[in-house]
Design brief:
Blueprint lengths: L12 E6 L2 E6 L5 E6 L2 E2 L16 E3 L5 E3 L2 E4 L2 E4 L9 E3 L9 E5 L3 E8 L9 E10 L2 E10 L5 E3 L2 E3 L1 E2 L10 E3 L2 E7 L5 E6 L11 E2 L6 E7 L7 E6 L3 E7 L5 E5 L13 E6 L5 H4 L4 E3 L4 E12 L2
Antiparallel strand pairs: 1-2, 2-3, 3-4, 5-15, 6-9, 7-8, 10-11, 11-12, 12-13, 13-27, 14-26, 16-25, 17-20, 17-22, 18-19, 18-21, 21-24, 22-23, 23-27, 24-25
């Protein structure tokens, strides 16, 4: 038998660099494995031969978060997805996180990757997904394009799942800003059962506030936006500030303080996830994008790091 070197579990690695920053994008899932600025790792990523813990850096499509029992109805047709979160009996985080994405273009400062999602049981539609990562003076920018390449209208949602930290500062000591005026209320399966305003409560981070011991695993909506339509989640330790921004197509933020991760990753970083729709959206219809045949949807988000003074 001929021996050969096994490829990394995350596949081919594409590195980009510019303006004192570096990022690594991977073939498996087309996600972000590393991001550093000024030599500091701000993304709590993973090794190239490691499975991404807690969906670290993955692209979640054609739906983010959970679908109760994997069941939903669209255009009058009932669908049953595979159960990919057996402990809670949910279908979770879409269908492209473990697909091999292919390289379209690679320059020193940018990489474009794509994936064709075939029709399958539970999601009988065909999509082409493209994601471009680029570095410049304004930080890291991620541009998504999704095209319906099939013959029928398709339901769709997307999120990204990066974990961020300010190395040397404990999560509890971070000042946190989340622009959501409301949050989803969850049951024990982390599925929505209602919503509540955050005003004045433990989940109100609409103005900067020390995180302290607060545990977050929440979807925030009713977003405060800048005049250009963007919204942002911000973490700061007084010296360094990390801002994750998203365009108006992202109507929700999921913020997770990684309390259920194990070992060194327990409460080490914060998942800051721009998301187009809330959990279980294929069942509720809430903020689901419907792509007509031939239509292309696009959206952008990004990361900016700054220092005081």
């Amino acid at each position: 038998m001929t021996n050969r070197t096994a490829p990394p579990k995350s596949g081919t690695q594409w590195t980009i660099a510019a303006d004192g920053q570096e990022a690594v994008v991977v073939e498996v899932g087309g996600g972000l494995r590393a991001y550093r600025a000024g030599g500091v790792d701000y993304l709590d990523g993973y090794a190239e031969d490691e499975l991404p813990p807690g969906s670290s850096g993955q692209i979640l499509a054609p739906w983010p978060s959970r679908i109760r029992d994997g069941r939903y109805t669209f255009a009058g047709e009932a669908q049953q997805l595979p159960i990919t979160e057996p402990a809670r009996h949910n279908a979770i985080h879409g269908l492209v996180a473990w697909q091999r994405w292919r390289l379209v273009e690679h320059t020193d400062s940018a990489v474009l990757v794509e994936c064709d999602l075939p029709a399958q049981v539970g999601y009988p539609w065909q999509l082409n997904l493209r994601t471009r990562y680029s570095l410049g003076p304004d930080g890291l920018r991620i541009d998504h394009e999704v095209t319906n390449i099939g013959a029928d209208a398709a339901p769709f949602g997307l999120a990204a799942h990066p974990y961020f930290r300010l190395p040397g500062t404990a999560l509890d000591d971070l000042m946190v800003t989340v622009p959501g005026r409301s949050r989803v209320l969850f049951d024990a399966r982390l599925l929505p059962i209602g919503a509540a305003k955050v005003s004045g409560g433990d989940h109100d981070f609409t103005v900067p506030r020390r995180l302290g011991a607060q545990v977050l695993d929440n979807a925030f909506g009713d977003l405060d936006r800048d005049p250009d339509g963007t919204s942002a989640v911000v973490i700061s330790d007084g010296d360094r500030t990390l801002r994750v921004w998203a365009g108006e197509q992202f109507k929700w933020w999921v913020v997770f303080t990684s309390d259920t991760l194990h070992g060194d990753r327990h409460r080490r970083a914060m998942a800051i996830e721009p998301q187009t729709c809330p959990p279980d959206a294929f069942r509720s219809g809430h903020d689901v994008v419907v792509l007509a045949p031939g239509d292309t949807w696009s959206a952008s988000w990004g990361v900016q790091v700054s220092r005081a003074g």
